[in-house]
Amino acid sequence: MNIYEANPDGTDLTALTSGPDYHAECAYSTDGNRIVYASNVDGSMNLYTMNSSGGDVKQVTHTQNCYNGGPFFSPDGQHIIFRADREKTHYLDIYCCKIDGSDEVKVTSNGAVNWAPYWHPNGKVIAFTTSLHGHMHYEIYLLNIETGIQKRLTHNATFDGLPVFSPDGSKIMWTSKRGEDKSCQIFLADFTLPSELNSIK
Question: Domain span at residue 145?
Fold first, then answer.
């Protein structure tokens, strides 16, 4: 699997990676200059960055026998948030590190599956998906990664996950099974960051 780049209308399709290995789960930095992605090119699933033309590849994580994936750059482009299954099979935690892989910190430790982290534009808060209330009952939580303060955002008996914010933070979009037929659909809502999550450590 490889990563391709194209114009919004599908023209100028260009391969940024090549070979038989897995290259996927990619995201641009805010300025569009670099891309972070997951790959098993070294035998384990680790994170890498490259420039927007596919060159200057740099390895970010260096772990073995685990899956580092789902990465996103912070709004200032200095950190990467991602999820990994390093401590317990079939369970995930969320980690944050600098773009060179240094100063890595685990930001969740609740014994659940925590995945799909996404930065709020203020660069301090993330939204993420968690099985804290059961493996058939995923919800979205907010977490200030500096203070550790978190807040439950959704309350739904089935599935809420994969949250993303608009660039100005005024909207949140996510996937949910809250419709009548319980199929996964995309929802959009107005969003205001709770004041307790905007505090400084």
Answer: 118-200
- Residue 196 has φ and ψ, to the nearest 5°, of -70, -20
CA distance 39 to 18: 11
Q: pLDDT for 65-90, tens place per residue?
A: 999 999 999 999 999 999 999 988 78
Is the pTM for the entire model greater than 0.85?
A: yes
Split into its structural domains, the chain has a count of 2
- The CA distance from 122 to 136, in Å, is 31
pLDDT digits (tens, 9 = 90+) for 182-198: 899 999 999 999 999 98
Last residue of a domain, one of 43, 78, 107: 107
User: Same domain, yes or no, for 44 and 67?
Assistant: yes
Residues 133 and 87 in one domain: no
User: Which residue shows structure tokens 């935690």?
Assistant: 93
- CA distances 156 to 93, 138, 153, 168, Å, are 22, 8, 10, 26
Q: SS3 helix, strand, coil % of the chain, rounded to 5? A: 0, 45, 55
Alpha-carbon radius of gyration of the chain = 17
Evaluate whether residue 17 is within a structural domain.
yes
Strands (DSSP E) found in 99-138? 105-106, 114-119, 125-130
Residues in Cβ contact with 29 at an 8 Å cutoff, skipping those fewer than 6 apart: 35, 36, 73, 77
